[in-house]
Specification:
By secondary structure, this protein is α/β, with parallel strands linked by helices. It is built from seven helices and six strands; from the N terminus they run αβαβαβαβαβαβα. It is globular and about 55 Å long.
Amino acid sequence: QFLSKRSISEWIAKQKIRRMKEHVIITPINGISLDLAKKLKSNGISYVLLDIDRHKVRAAIRSGLLAMAGDATNAAVLHDAEIENAFVLFSLYEEDITNTFIAIAAKSINERCSVISRIKCIEDIPKIERAGARRVILPEAAIGEEMANFIISKY
């Protein structure tokens, strides 16, 4: 069977993921998750990026990050990402419902895994917490607070 450079690098990534213990799963691949993965990598913390878009996965692998393709709402994909051995899952989708489904799927497999979810609508916080998210992040609120603190510090 002919193996391309691309499929070999994906196969190597999968082998590394299979050996992971006490790692962090980060989904999807976006600006926030790439920054997070780089910071974890520089501090020697095991992680895997997970995204349904194979082009993003290949780009992450080419840049030296550990990544795999798949839909994080799918339990089989979470198994492939070794969710059973993960200690944290960051669900950073823009859609609250997607983050909620991921929290449910992750907690149904590994109750000990801490799920940290991005959320856009404050009204959805109780729902995602009931789904199993231990921590909720509102990036827009954090940015607003940082901007306000900047202005306040100038007066």
